[in-house]
Target: beta-N-acetylhexosaminidase
Amino acid sequence: ALLFCFACTEPKKEVLVPDIDLAEEALIPMPLKVIPTNSAFALDQFTAIYTSSSDSSLADIGAFLSTKIQSKTGLRLPVNDTEGSTVDRIIFINQTENLELKEHEAYQLYINKDSLILNAKTTEGAFRGIQTLRQLIPEKSNDTLNEHSIWPIPSGKIIDEPNFEFRGAMLDVARHFFGVDEVKKFIDILAYYKINVLHMHLTDDQGWRIEIKSWPRLTEIGGSTEVGGESGGFYTQEEYKELVAYASKHHMMIIPEVDMPGHTNAASVSYPFLNGNGKTPKLYEGTHVGFSTFDTRKDTVYSFIDDVVREISQMSPGPYFHIGGDESHVTKKNDYKYFVERVEKIVQKHGKRMIGWDEVATADIDSTSITQFWNSEDNARSAVKKGMQVILSPAKKAYLDMQYDPLSKYGLHWAAYIPVDSAYVWTPETYSGIDNENILGVEAPLWSETISNSSELEYLAFPRAIGYSELSWSTEENRDWENYKVRLAKQAPFLERMNVNYYPSKLIDWE
Ligand code: TNX
Model:
């Protein structure tokens, strides 16, 4: 209930609204429950936004909503303005523990004729609810029913919470570097679909992309190249913090990955004592994998790793640190295990939980560490036996760098061709035979051997990443390809307005 009365002194202006059906809206990801009441809330110039506490995090969400409404409609809605005179309708963002939903990102939207109330358990929940609301605002106003324009939002109730708490995408900034603004644009689009994790693959054979103050040659030398002989690049610590803050503002966590002991050529060129394969390393601009390794038996290598993990962890508010661990084909098996076990302790010492690609499950590691299943079901099963949680990124289904079909311009196809339907039509809950309680969530990795700018990134990521958002947020009963593809077609105006170079798959009747 609203315990206050804004603009009570003003007689309310009558506004005419169309009867529209909330169940017909093209929401992605599909909410848990949608209950239409076939009227509408008239979003217009007499609408104002209020938040239950002016506590800055909730007020920030109100301001975020106001900005997004302005860029879509041109309306400038005040936030928590107590002096405003002509308020006819309110959007009220309310934080309350008392929701009969269990997930901390849960929210409910009550859309009535004169009020639109968002109840959320947490500020994250409020932020997710705001994304639903953004999707309900029509692209075009109705200018005929009233003397002024309204953007009618269908009335009813939405009750919603995520199926998986971890809903991620990964960007490889090592094979090709992507600058701060390119990453921010990616975050903007992902956040609209309730993705809450951006995993950044910060280092690989072809480049080291994050400034480490105690080891400056990593970026001076290791950051100077990329695939194809272009100029490389890296984030200064200030820039990296700016990205972390931008992601946080979108209630998204950045997970940093430093890939080791393989995929380390760029580090070993910068500091040759790290190198473990006996050769003198040279900068590498090709796309082979599996040829590099750290020396796993030198203490100095572990002091180096300690510095790197410490500096990056200090800039990372989230609980995870990703150590890579994939395709260490020139590291002896025992050396590999020894290495992973020792690095796990370093990660824990700096207050983080270790994540690694599925090969790390061959080592004797802790149940609090996490395995990212990309390739080997055996490894995923060993992880579960150790009591670990698993992130699902099966290459055949979830790799954003796989080509859509043999004709698509960018991407690889070693795992599969992944057209838009195949990307969506699988069941994370049962895909690899892992019990639900061991599944942390779903992540779609975008490797960058074949892409080097935003427009190429977007060609591979969209529309498939939108499908992964539904696979991780929505329940199995609420997912259906025939229904999804109609909703996906209706994303075109948003993607075009955001200047996203999505792949216009022929499987979709784009609007
Ligand atoms: C395998 S997936 C890799 C990456 C490549 C990718 C290309 C994984 C853990 N390792 O190094 O970029 O294939 O699809």
